[in-house]
Amino acid sequence: MSDIFDIAIIGAGPGGMSAALEAAQQGASVAVLDRKATPGGQIYRDVTQSPLLDPSVLGREYTEGAELVRAFLEADIDRHQNADVWHIGENGEVLYSQDNQTRRLVARELIISPGAMERPFPIEGWHLPGVMTAGSAQVMLKSDGMVKDGAIFAGTGPLLYLIVAQYLRLGVTVNAVVDTTPAGGVGRAMQHLGGALRKPAYLIKGLKLLNEIRRAGVPVFRHASNLSILGESKAVGLQFQQDGRTHSINAGHIFLHQGVIPNLNMTRALGMEHHWAEQQLCWTPVLDDWGQSSIPHIAVVGDAAGIQGAEAARHAGRLAALKAMNKLGKLNDADLQQESSANLKAIKSFKAFRSFLDAYYPPTPEHRIPVATNTLVCRCEEQTMGQLRAGFEQGAKDPNALKALTRCGMGPCQGRQCGHTVSELLADWQNKPVSDIGYYRLRSPQRLLSVEELSQFQNIKPVQKPAEVSA
Question: CATH number of the domain that 376 lies in?
Fold first, then answer.
């Protein structure tokens, strides 16, 4: 019996669960480590134990995830929930926190799926109490059945409209939708129309969401610009411009959203090669068709590999698992190609559809790259755009130099909330492409650790099967 797992998977969202199921069905010993108390990721969060009387109000894509979660829970997989991974070694070693203890396992192949995060929305007042991301509104809804009546939803992208529709189905009042999608969406996306037509069901779903919001009578302000939060010690409203006029709407809760981007902390700490994806305006790991990264034994799947959605993540998870089995010598090249064919074709169609969405719903420069000197950029270290500009003028020309000079990116989130903004600010100030600027250099541990936790150490090994024990 080996003390090493064949495959360790980090993250139990759609991609991680699908990878685990495929690998287990292929006969691999599989360990899955997930930060949350229950599997499902953000998309399928608490789908098998929803606090809502009728979870179907969240949409068919959500409820369909219950089947995947149940299959995952029933499979022969070594599952570890509430497991927060903070280090991955070059030898396949994984260190994580669970039950206030440090635990360790080793695997021959690793598949990581740390998911996505919402793109920073650094506008004046975005740090005030009462301002959250639209994704936070959905987390509260899925996890606890909590909502905020009379909120404003502001930003762009399909997820924003989905969450507004979910609120309305529950009878929750929405004060306004302030849509920052720039005019000319049809023209921008027309060259990708062929890709969109490959997924007509998704187009119809989007139109239905817009009609649902319109029929509910929610005020919708299209092509809004120059957003700022009103309030001194807490949010009291939102100010913006539309068609040359300035509008102010009162609300104690404001949910911001301008798309999602890969959660980079784990892939960056590993030293993976990344590139600036101009289409999605974010950094992504450099991967092949099977999700294989620049590190030979590590693959990346799900939205951490580039934003494509839950269904695409399932296909990506299966592809990564099949490739891992091939590398382990448990699946020959011919069978790998045959079993991967349908998944590779599906991924290609999702990428084509995503190109249409990215062109139609681009986050505007003014809401990504702040120009007001008092706008907070690094919320952990309370560094404003003006302070970062001063650091730049003192000679900090790249993110790491700016971090050293200003402490921007040194807080508990380790740059998650400011990393992309800093890259784009430095590119703008130097009139260079973002790809030339780079990103923060990150290292393990990826979270704060206590001495007490480190003193409680346990090795985790594959569970022996009955046949192995008798042998």
Answer: 1.10.10.1100
